[in-house]
């Protein structure tokens, strides 16, 4: 089975021998591939809807992995006891949904669990939520599929230093980090912020000035981060 780039990147972060759960599994591609490669011997695949869960069962049957996957119809982590897993992937859904899933499982931020998150939207909001609820983003990576960038976050329970305005949008960076798409991603975010600012300039909403000030701070910090990144590449 060949995974998409974003799922392949998640698979790379799964520790060998992990007790693995894939929340919102959809077609079940990730746990099946991890079983094929021998990284894990058993997996839990959950989804809130019966249709996607049945598709995951079909994938497992097709690749002869049904006996190694427990399929559970449940909301988020509600059907997974904390002592049953040590590595959890939550991918392909909005950042607000991911935050809600973690919030509904009080054990998530307290035990020594590894979370591999791949939000599709509300990414700055998710980073801020993680910071405010005692989760630590250990590292991030960026992958592309076509013209779309995807963020992969490796997260554990524990506090982390406050994120700056730009870091809430782009994640942290440091000299020597391996991130070939980092410069392109910073440019893409800067363009998005500028488009949003242009739209707000035409708005008559009473909330516009505050939002403009917030996004202006983001734009300035992203510019600082881009210059810093370029200096490190010389």
Put the structure in a nutshell.
This protein is of the alpha/beta class and about 230 residues long.
Features:
234 residues; alpha/beta; Rossmann fold; 7-stranded mixed sheet; 43% helix
Distance between the termini: 39 Å
Helix content: 40-55%
Strand content: 15-25%
Under the CATH scheme, the architecture of the largest domain is: 3-Layer(aba) Sandwich
Mean pLDDT: 95
The CATH top-level class label of the largest domain:
Alpha Beta
Largest sheet, order of strands side by side? 3-2-1-4-5-7-6
Which structural class should the secondary elements be placed in? alpha/beta
Q: Report the principal-axis shape.
A: globular
Q: How would you characterize the largest beta sheet?
A: 7 strands, mixed
- CATH level-four homologous superfamily name of the largest domain: Vaccinia Virus protein VP39
Count of discrete alpha- or pi-helical segments spanning 4 or more residues = 8
| Structural domains: how many | 2
How large is the radius of gyration?
19 Å
How many β-strand stretches? 7
**SSE order:** HEHEHEEHEHEEHHH
CATH topology of the largest domain: Rossmann fold
Low-pLDDT sequence parts: none
